[in-house]
Amino acid sequence: MRTPVLSAILGLSLAACVGAVPGDPVGGGGDDTGGSNTGSNTGSNTGSNTPEPVPAVAISVDHTTLTSDLGVDNLITVTATGSMGFSGPVTLTASAVDSTSGTVLADWSVKLDTATLTLDTDGTATAKVTVNLPGNAASLLGNIKISAASAAAPVEADVALTANPVLDVLIADNGGNCAYPTLTPYNLKVGRSMKVINGSATLGLTVHVGPQVSAGFAHEGGVTAPGDAYKGQGPLTDIVNGIPFYCHNGNQNTLNGLPNSSMTLNVVQ
Question: Domain range spanning residue 108?
């Protein structure tokens, strides 16, 4: 028969046997703690979430603004550059749009020397855009919009162009004789001016105009020096069709030219 004192002693001894052994981790099973799982999961998740590089194309132009006379070729160099591992073809388009409304300016001439550029990995390539406005262009203000399409996101570049209300015509020197341009007849909007440029480096030029004339563009009374221009008398104010103009018969100091029936000017509304 156990006494109350003996039962108490036995109870305390049993509790000591099932208690924690000094030096063991609290809760037991030290190898199964969550510390190692947390570290491995954090590392693997961080690596898998790193974004992949996205190949891209950028384009740039050597002019962002241009000012030009009418009838003049304006050259724009376009450079396409790949990045983030891009390689492959890039298709270019170029057009002229009104600087305010954004509508296409169909009477502006905009030409690319090549429509497709092929880039090596992260490489560059260039194309040329030539812009020319006729004398009767409806608008003198516009933007040249250049677009690039490829396997990457599309990109654009703009060049703002302002045209002076002056039509340039170059007469070159061919062994002392006038070499006429092939683009003719010329159409010039009323209220604008003519400028006939002497393309000779050594000889003068006298511009014959008529018999039809328009106020502001008449027969030249003097001689235009080499590299200079005959600018008439100002804006043309009369609407006249078929005004002939050509080099006057020259002498030893001026270019020599005969009437050229295809060299004509129409002054239009």
Answer: 56-164
